[in-house]
Design a protein that fits this description.
This protein is an alpha/beta fold. About 40% of the residues lie in helices and about 20% in strands. α2 crosses α11.
Amino acid sequence: MKKAFILSSLAVLSLASLASCGGRDTSKVIAVCASESPHALILNNAVKPLLEEKGYRLEVTVLDWTLQNDAVLNGDYDANYFQHRPYLQQYETNKDNYSETYTYTKVFPTALVHYEPLRIYAGKAKAADFEKNKKTATYEICSDSSNEIRALELLKVNGVIDSYEVDESGTPLNENGTVKGHENIHLIDEAMLSAHLEDYDYGALPCNTALTANLTADDTLPVEDSSVAELRANVIAANVESYKKDEVYKAKIDALTEAILDESVASYIKSTWNGVIATYPKSLL
């Protein structure tokens, strides 16, 4: 009788656990929000089969990149895949002052996966005219401070500008929708960069933005140097507190991290995007 009571109690607890998760056991489901391309494609086409072999089901949701860190912090998703570490630290601190030794308190990176170089794309001007017109040409660049710095550094290295001003936190100074001191460099929301490219001579676009718009890179135009690959490599990011305190959650994130660093994922990235997107696999756990 006592044994039957114990078994019955365990069954009730098991049902209660399932009910609390919407009627299904989520211990083997890994929910990841991601940008559409290349992130969601990599997850669905290369990572999902590897996780299935480990007994996990990967569920990928394409989500606006501005919502993804909050979504992981709030527990709506187990992890996200869309950003590099400078952007993640900016989310955590609201300052653009990246540090290799920074201790993450909200959402933390578990692995470097791939690198998306920022490059110049031709708008209403011709790629062949870049060198002779580069100082007087008009440019659009991304308005978030992380990508703005990347674009300004690219323009500086290639002789478009000599310098730019920043405030005490290292954020570029802007005025009237342009970079301070450079009225020909216009700040555009990332979601609108591709649509407005033809309004400017050239645009300095993040790789993911260009891929989403099916833009073709021109190797005669400047591209970000590979020396910043580790800094700008896109990461898998997870919830700090859940990883510390929840063993089931930790097992999910460890499995996801191991899978996305598999050599077959790097091979998929290389073959699918012909080297435009570079692999940079490295565990941060």
